[in-house]
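Researcher: Please predict.
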Amino acid sequence: MVKGYCQIGDINKAIMIIEQMESLGLKPNCITFNSLIDKICEMQKMNEAEEWVKKMAEKGVAPSVVTYNTLINGFGKLCTFDRCFQILEEMKEIGVKPNVVIYGSLINCLCKDGRILEAEIVVRDMIGRGVLPNAQIYNMLIDGSCAVGKLKDALRFFDEMLRSEIGATLVTYNALINGLCKKGRLMEAENLLLQITSSGYSPDAITYNSLISDYANAGNVPKCLET
């Protein structure tokens, strides 16, 4: 019921249900509180979200990795990165180890804000703490780098990804092809197109749209039609 009221945006009734549970001697668990905190973060009421994290701790319910991930994601979307880093430190202090999902939330928000250097620092930190980045992490870095025109960094992340034996996905290739096309480096983009098929993937509409758009900008109509 708490989750249901949160899904329709009725926070007051969700809170009322939690209060009713307690009055009946039923103790809300971490999942109950996480449903409420997630919705409050979605509404960008971060102070209120943190108050509920304190309340759940006061009620003897320890915040979980999911709780902290929700907070970091919420603050990250508001570009309040100082608080995100503080939460990471708080987690370490109380012995809750951040996982790849938590790091991914922060890295994703940093990349979307164009803060690629800081995102890379977070990646180095997670590796240093024994949390290995996955394909999704590298895709965030590559896509973020391409979005701000840092193609050299994007290709460096791609090489690092392959050296680490992390398989590139179609998302990886599409981000790089789009970035290369925007820089007019069509030959390299076409080479990546060949790599897509050799890797067992099939190019999709996003792949072809990037190429067609750049062929059009170059005035190469025959190539547009051929693609």
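Model: The chain has 14 helices and no strands.
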